[in-house]
Amino acid sequence: MGTLPAAITYLMTSRLRDWLVVVPVAVLALSLALIGYMVDCTAKACLSFPEALFQSITILRFGRMPSFSQSPPELLVAPFLIPAIALINGARLALRNLVKEMRVVWAHRLRDHAIVCGLGDTGRHVVENLRAAGRSVVVITLDIEDENAAACEALGIPLLKGDARQLSLLNLAGLRYARQLIATCGSDSVNLEIGLRARDALIEGAAQNGPFQILPEMRSHWLVDTIRQHRSAALGAERLEFRPFNLYSGAVDEVLRRAGLGRALGHMGGAGPRLLLVGFGETNAQLVFHAVQNFFAVPGRRLRATVFDDKGEDRRPFLTARFPGLLQLAEIDFLGCTFDPEDPAAWSVVEETLERIGEDISSLFVVVALGDDATSLYAALQLRERLDRLGGLGAPVFVRLREQSRLGGFMGSLDGGEVLLTRLAPFGDIANLTKPRALFDNRADALAQALHASYLAAAGAGAGDPAAVPWAQLPERFKHSNRLFADHLPVALSELGIRLAPSPAPPFAFGRGEIEALAAMEHWRWSIERRLFGWTQADKRDDIAKKHPLLVAWKDLSEEDRERNRRLVRIVPEIVAKAGMGLLRERYIDGRSPDCAAEISALGPSEKGILLLDPQDGRGWAEALDAVRERSLKIWVVWRAGAALPAFPKEAKGKEILRPAVERWVGERECAFLLARAGATADPRSRQEAG
């Protein structure tokens, strides 16, 4: 084969980076041959340029060698350049392929590694985060030539080509010696099938060395909802946790856990903030669903929301079909408009709505989640500007940014480093949602598992009870219900001025009034959980027809049923302790009071101090610094109506310590209420009737 055919064959089978070497060498070889023929005048007259070019192509095309004794050096070197480069790069390619094959062969010898099935956006981020955490990873993908696979190869990660549903491929990836399997193939049914096959293989085969986690990604709701509502569907097994994950739910959990919403519901029995939702795709639909059964699941409180979406009222049937009882539990207005940067017409609809809200504009909680990051950020910035102009300086705007969270964080920081409120905050960054801690850490289940352990220890958990099994074998509907209880517990406690601490605390006991209030809230939460999916009240329970006799108001329950809820509340301190957490009473301290320092010193070990602080009180910030350092106090900023954005005084010191302690802002009215309640409960005997 001639030089040019060999080069073309090589180039067609090599990677792009290898072309960058071969093409310049080919040009150099042709140039040398051309020069050689033009100066080779020994046999005949010097060749013209066209003739020299033809001869050069001929010698490179057919590999015909010139005479060594009569040809110039340029003509002798030219034919060897391309074959030499092709040979070198061919050796590199063979070595690279050998290394890849050795990684594959070595994959089944790894221990305590993670197996990632599928290399879409989610899978790529999972792999990158695992490697950044120092974890070993094996990847199974259908396409080992795409850009994500190339990125994994550059990281030295073994790549197995094929369908992850094949058990032989999972075994080749070292299934029995791994610690996690994450399925991110882009199809819920495929991901679930991979997880089930892996689970069955692990159950039927020899026991693995340690606990194993199977995490299939679920992007739509219907399959997971079907499993969670089934009477007996159980996914887990002994020492095997099977937990589907959803990045939309992860994003919603992130934004709802921000202190702004949970604490902004207030302690005065108000209706709570009004949600303003821009876009009503999966993110905001799940946000409404979670908020109704969590932060708004308190007697007398009802979610109010305004939705701006291009489909407007057409979204209502979609919501009703998915959550049949939701619109009986919430007030939701749907307004049709788009947020195309090239079409400003939508903003007239938004501005009219904001003006109708009037004085309540500061109680808004805004979440923007549109189709792409650029449009979402544009809409969020425009909303921030209009809210500020209409007096809603304290209304937070959260914007879903999957890939551009750094840009969102930068735009949110433009208020300046002295401002105490984060008023434009990105959430839902796929890189953060796929970190090992977010995926594998089951501390979020600690309360739910402790609740189930207490249930198993109770006398009522009989042998015929479908819930009387270890957590690993518990049907998904019971796991989900326990998780909902655990999610709602901090909300219920905060209504009574009690805080769930992440670490153990001194022994805690509720007063009689607190037990009654918490029991009523738990019954209300349970009722909402059922009603969301279309359950109704009936004299006789029917799980198939979704009817239940206990779906009535707290006052209409029998004393026996009320006592059942009270028993659950009484063991909450025990449940919290089993989960490695604690309960603390919040103690509100007026930072403007001359007795502030004495009150801080008087805080007991079972109390959490909260300093209500005027942002312009320089002396108060100085005392706050010592309190935060020594007693880990939290700070609630008192923001007067019409005042400028709360900011650190210029003379304030230790801002890097104080800023993390600032949880939220409160109005003057709420501040007065909190201080009055703090005074009323200062006597421990009064706590017997608290709540």
Please describe the structure with a list of short key phrases separated by commas or semicolons.
single chain, 691 residues, alpha/beta, Rossmann fold, 5 domains, six-stranded parallel β-sheet, 27 helices, 47% helix, disordered C terminus
Task: Draw up the topology in text.
Layout: H1 3-13, H2 16-39, H3 49-62, H4 73-107, E1 114-117, H5 121-132, E2 137-141, H6 147-154, E3 159-161, H7 167-172, E4 180-183, H8 188-204, E5 212-216, H9 222-229, E6 240-242, H10 247-256, H11 259-264, E7 274-278, H12 282-292, E8 303-309, H13 315-322, E9 330-336, H14 346-357, E10 364-368, H15 373-389, E11 397-400, H16 405-412, E12 424-427, H17 430-433, H18 436-440, H19 446-457, H20 476-495, E13 498-501, H21 512-531, E14 536-537, E15 547-548, H22 559-570, H23 572-578, E16 582-590, H24 596-601, E17 607-613, H25 618-631, E18 634-638, H26 655-658, E19 662-666, H27 668-680
Helix pairs in contact: 1-4, 2-3, 2-4, 10-12, 19-20, 19-23, 20-21, 21-22
